[in-house]
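FAQ: What does a multi-protein file look like?

Like this. Sequence, then tokens, then the next protein.
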Amino acid sequence: MTTPNPIPIPSRDNLARLMRSRGRSGVLRMRSSGGSDAALNIPQLEGKPMATSAPVPTRMDIQISGIRKHYAVCVTEGKGGAACGARSSLWDNPMQPNAWIRAHSEEEGHTKFRKHTEEDVATFTKPARK
């Protein structure tokens, strides 16, 4: 018997677009496992009472800045076998690393590069609303 097709996981872009369409400011809300027995499985020394407070449901918020930074790194191997390691500046525009790659390639004759994207993300936990 075959299993049904799993539900596709939405991409970050689709989630961000959905949040903006609902008037959210880049905060993705997730419920934690508050109230589970996970804390009770922590090993304790024998004879010592385990001091556990009543579990409080919490919610973890992930705040996505939405500002992506783009840069490129030269990974062309030199004479000693080590990569060049030259790195471009950080730019908001994804096309700027291409210009740097072209310029570095013309100046140094290097041919292998790696492009990277960075995005700041912060998480914080607070009690869940009932």
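And here is the next protein:
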Amino acid sequence: MPAADVSPGGGVSGTVLARGVSQESLHLGAEGATDVIVRTITLAPGGSTGWHYHPGQLLAVVTSGTLTRTLEDCTVEVTPAGGAFIEPSGARNRHIGRNLGSEPVVLYLTYLLPKDGPLSVDADAPPCAGD
């Protein structure tokens, strides 16, 4: 049994909530007082997050379905179940997440936000989106 799965002291249990693989290096950071929030989001088939940005970074793991994100410059990133990525902070990193598939997209998210800040901020679509 791997060392991480045992506790010499006993009386400890754990559950892996989500596991994903990033195809790129991940770099997380926060300065000052930071709220760390963990939550799940489910996007129904045909669902959308709307254009928005986050005031802090977040780490996302896709556990079901395929998430399609359109970024500020209208490039598209597709992340299937088992994938992980970081969303950078700030208005210059607005994006929209869509479920273009036939099954729900389930995300496990860890937010690193300025203390008492919102999870996200609604934003207008960039000119290149034509929305």
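Q: Is there any per-entry metadata?
A: Some entries carry free-text notes. For the entry above: The longest strand covers residues 34-43.
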